[in-house]
Every structure is written in structure tokens, then in C-alpha cells.
Amino acid sequence: MENHIVRVHPSAEDFPKSEHLAWKIAQVAADPVAVPAESAEMAVNRIIDNASVAVASVLRRPPSTARSQALSRPQTPGSTVFGVPGTYAPEWAALANGVAVRELDYHDTFLAAEYSHPGDNIPPILAVAQRQAAAKGLTGEDLIRGIVTGYEIQVDLVKGICLHAHKIDHVAHLGPSVAAGLGAMLKLDPETIYQAVGQALHTTTATRQSRKGLISSWKAFAPAFAGKMAIEATDRAMRGEGAPAPIWEGEDGVIAWMLDGPDAEYTVPLPAAGEGKRGILDTYTKEHSAEYQSQAPIDLAFRLRSQISNLDDIESIVLHTSHHTHYVIGTGANDPQKFDPDASRETLDHSVMYIFAVALEDGVWDYNTSYSPERAHTASTIALWNKISTVEDPEWTRRYHSNDPQVKAFGAKAVVTLTDGTVIEDELAVANAHPLGAHPFDRSQYEGKFRKLADGLVTEKEQERFLEAARNAASLRADELDQLTVTFDPEVLAKAPVIPEGIL
């Protein structure tokens, strides 16, 4: 990897395009270096993982809304949409599939200077692959190259540039990464990719209010919208249209006015020329349908159950954890909604206090029932929920930001005080499913997650058809890329909510 210094350059300064971060990203995307076998295998795992969480959410309202928008735009050749037959305009298929993937907050994650769900790259890249398969002669190998590139660029940007400190949503790293992935898959020249990356960043910067206070369904739409914008940006760039430049480093650019300002300096690592892209191997998926910083606390709550004979004896629970966990999903956020039984699912998903209480009481975590209104209104849960708080511990923050994978941690220490004064302490650094956890996910567990979430929604025959196609994704022909979707039987799909008509 090569480290690149990124800072603001005044317009009057001679700052050649070759030094622009967008150009360097374009060079990485255009590099014809072979995809490492391990990266290709992990891309298959994540195709399966995305499908798992998408099928589980197809009948929910936000994915149904996005799907209704896509279904009004049939196109041949086009792109598939989870749940339904036929093909549709790729940018709208990407939106529908992106919302389905993100709705449950249940797919992969990467956390460093910034936060991310790199699996959000897959819906737009796959949609374009399906749409362009015949025209460009794309194969599964090209698709894998695009996905691995998208992951690489997002992971590298997340390592180097913090957005949340300035309340910019993390999808601002997703637009450029999708554009880079599309460029790699379509074998575009560096100039075209450069313009697409710049346009994608320019059109996908937004505030983090989508993850603050009363969190709405826009949380699921935000990354899907960024993917849609990246497709449109790439389309314009292929037609010869340019982007604001330098998009990151300009004196009126992103760093100068949205991030740390004109005196800031960032270090972004990128693969050197001829170096294989391995960023996808740094990412990790979720065993539980909750915000990633809740994964280890959920497993910790399960473990604590055996140490506490009667939960009614709990006087307080303090979770000592990182800055991010405390201020985003903990009591440091100062969001009263995080203790509200009538809060939205999205809000409860971002309340580690609620999540820890339910996990401690139930000993299981279910993507549906753990968030139900009945569950949130359980009297014993409300009582326990309000006994839980978080504090930032500098050591957990240090570990959170460590570049050493053996040190990096996303967990917490729980200090449980009982009414008789007894104190019980336990901690867990990483979730059980993390690569360094008690039972890291492998292919069998990704497939098991798919079967579990597809059960009762997708026929066994359709499940096996999809899994066989996914396993062989790298060897699919152009006319086989449409197999990387899952279709519901009509009577199952009919259970989705009826969506009112809009404008489009």
C-alpha cells in the first residue's frame, strides 16, 4: 500500500491532476492487476450475505416503496430486483436492492477513522453488470473485479478520512467507491473514472441527521441513493461530462468546507500499481441485526446471563466503551428517543441500552421480534433498559482506532451492580462472528444465514438455485448474471404493504 497525503490546495497553486485523490483512485480502479483469490472468495460471501438480509426485508415498507419505484421502469436488457421477476432500469434496481440490503442493518461493516457498510457497493455494481452484460460482454469475473474494487476504495477512504466528526454521513465515501467499482468492472479509462468519482462525491455528501434523534426509514435509503447517484455520475462521465475538481482538495471543496478545513491534512492508503486489492478482507459481517457496535455487547449480554441469577436484582449496568459507541448509540448521544418504547425500529437499532436489555432478558436476538412494539413495551424490559448507561473509556476508544487488527476492538466492559452491592464485571472486545471472534463466519455460516432468513419466504428450490449461482459467481457468463437475485412466489410477495402512488 502507498500512503497519499491529501490537503487543500488554493486555486492559484499549481496542483496537477496526477496528484488529485480522485485521479489516484481512478488509477487504482483502472489497474488490470488480477483479483487475489481470497478477495474473490470473500466477494462471493458478501453477495450471499447481501441476499440474506435483502430477502428478509422484501416485505417491509421501505424496500416495498423503493421496489414500487423500480417496477414503474421496466427495461430490457435491464437489472433484476429482489423479490420480483423481470428486469428494470439499473439505477432504480440499484435503489430498490440497496434499500432491501440496508433496511435491517444486518450486513457487513468496516470501522476505522470513519464508519461504513461496504456491502452497499454490491447492489449498484451488480445492477450495472446485469444491464451492461451483453453490450460490454461482462462476465462474473468482471463483476467480482468491480465489487472488490468498490470495497477497496471505500475501506481506504474510511481508513484515511473521518466524516462523522463534522456530521457528514458516511455515504460520502460510498459514492466514489461505487464509481470506482463501476469503472473497474466496465474497464473504463482513468479519465472517465476520475470524472465519475468527482461527480459521485459531489452529489452524495449529506449530514448525519439521518442517524440522529428519531431515525426514519431514510437510513435505509441513504446508501442506496448514493449508489444510484454513482451510477448516474458514471453514465454522465461516459458521455463526456466532467466533475468539479479537485473535488476533495479544492479551496471550495469537500475538505475545506465540509471537513477539517483549509489547514487539514489526511493520509489515505491506496494499493500501489500492480498490487492486488485486499481491502474486502478487512471487513466483517454481522451475526445479529443491530448496529455493529452492538454486536459484541449482544454476545456479552448472552454470556452475562449465566452470572446473574435474577435480573430484578440489577441496580445499574454501565457499559464502558468507545467514543463512537457512547456518542452514537449510547447515552452520550443525549437522545431521549433511545429510551422510548414507541421509537422507530431504526432508533431502537441505535440504542445499545435497549439492545443490551433485550439480549440480557431473552438470550437470543431476532431481526424481527426483538424490535417488535410488544417487545419494546414489556414492563420488565423498560425497567431494565432505564438502568443501563454508557461511558466513554479512553482505552476502548484507543483500541477502536488502532490500525493493528489484533488490538482493534468494538466491544465494551459491562459493570453490573446488584441491589445487595455485588458487582459483576465482564468484557468482550470483538463479536463472536468477527474474524478474531469465538466463531468467525465462513462460507457455511454465510449460507446458513441466507437459509435462515429466507425460510418461509423463498422456496427451498429457489434458495438452492441462488446459492449455486452465487458460489459460481466468478465463472458466470454474461447471460447468467441475472441469476444473482432471489424471486418470491406471488402469494408471498402479495403480503408486502400496498404502496400509494407518487409522482414518478
Account of the 3D structure:
GO terms for molecular function: 2-methylcitrate dehydratase activity. InterPro entries: MmgE/PrpD_sf (IPR036148), MmgE/PrpD_sf_1 (IPR042183), MmgE/PrpD_sf_2 (IPR042188), MmgE_PrpD (IPR005656), MmgE_PrpD_C (IPR045337), MmgE_PrpD_N (IPR045336). It comes from Corynebacterium terpenotabidum Y-11. This is 2-methylcitrate dehydratase. It catalyses: (2S,3S)-2-methylcitrate = 2-methyl-cis-aconitate + H2O. The protein is of the alpha+beta class and 504 residues long. The chain folds into two domains: 2-282, 2-methylcitrate dehydratase PrpD; 292-428, 2-Layer Sandwich (60s Ribosomal Protein L30, Chain: A), CATH 3.30.1330. It is 45% helix and 11% strand. It has 20 helices and ten strands. The strands form four sheets. Strands 8-7-9-10 form a four-stranded mixed beta sheet. A two-stranded antiparallel sheet has the order 1-6. Helix 5 (122-136) runs antiparallel to helix 6 (140-160) and helix 8 runs antiparallel to helix 9. The longest helix has 21 residues, at 37-57. The radius of gyration is 22 Å and the shape is globular. The termini are far apart. The mean pLDDT is 96.
